[in-house]
Amino acid sequence: MRLRIKLLIFILISIWYAGIFFECLTKLYPESIIIFPFIKKTYSLICHQEHGKLIELNCGHLLVCSRCTGIYSGILLLSIVNLFIKKELHTNLKFLFMSAILIIIDILLVSLNIYSYSKTIAFVTGLFFGSVLFLYFYKSLINLFNEIQLDK
């Protein structure tokens, strides 16, 4: 049962993650351009999508900024790792606060013009935050599934 839940979580995260590459998909399947505005709007609810902060590939831009791409990459990466780990992953508030503080410090330093915005730094801080965030996301889903099982 636990492996099925892990696999389901991984599949759902993978689908969401693949969506950020949708602009590239429209190059491969031009007919998918019809739903592009809907997909872009969906991701705009979560990310500012500021053009200068988007990662550009040969086929187009990602639909989220560098930091959000890092967050989603961290979530996806840890969901893959979670598939192969039999031990329960534990949450630690220290890591959550540390990862959030790294993002806040980066934003403050850029806002104060101490250094220029770096897509790499934004991606890495997002990656760390996303990895830690997955632990909380996963734990919440497991608790939800356990509650559902108890109700049956």
Keywords:
152 residues, mainly alpha, two-stranded antiparallel ribbon, 2 strands
Explain what the structure shows.
The chain is mostly helical and 152 residues long. It has one domain. Helix content is 69%, strand content 7%. It has six helices and two strands, in the order αααββααα. The chain has a two-stranded antiparallel ribbon. β1 and β2 (60-65) form a beta hairpin. The longest helix is centred in the last third of the chain and has 33 residues, at 119-151. The protein is flat. The relative contact order is 0.14.
- Tell me the Rg in angstroms: 17 Å
Order the strands across the largest sheet as they lie in space. Answer: 1-2
How many domains in all? 1
Based on DSSP secondary structure assignment, what is the total number of beta strands? Answer: 2
What's the helical proportion of residues?
Answer: 55-70%
The low-confidence runs, each spanning 5 or more residues with pLDDT under 50, are: none
